[in-house]
Model the fold of this input.
Amino acid sequence: MSPLFADRCSSLRPDARVAAAVTVGVFPDPRLPVAVMERAVAAWSVCSGPETEMPRLEIGRHGTRDLLVEFDPAAIGSDERCGSFQMRTITIFARTRTQHGNVVSCGSMIQNLTHELGHALGLADAPRSCSSFAMAKLGPNNGFHRRVRAAECQALSARWVQLPAPPPIWTGVEGDSRVAASSVYP
Done:
């Protein structure tokens, strides 16, 4: 399938559609260390600014879209998967099973969660040759040196559309110098 954003290391998931959102609420599993959640959410903050548009990720607050993050320290991922995103749930694993049946570490939980948040926002896996990108395909011991890159932010900007604020409603009588804009929306 052809990606919706043409960059070798950053592409939208083929099923991603343009969406409007202001905030995405992220609700962590109580077994997940708070610092992991905070740092993974903060990693995507590099994408905020006038040149990119994406929703704010907010921990523990409801948004226009909400995500649940699950973590079971005893669970082991399969097929060399260190996390998954399905519907509105992200699951993070500390360990995974290789194709040969060995159980190995998944590396940094922060980077694994950052990667899965990227999927939740609409990004596809980047090829392993783009190993420094947050969306580089995860594998055993492949999660220590990745970070969110500008190309990933640009791909997200193509995915998310911020809704403009509605125009103010004018109150009072035309010509009255005391007329002021109201913040009341129709």
Summary: The domain at 19-182 is CATH 3.40.390.10 (Collagenase (Catalytic Domain)).
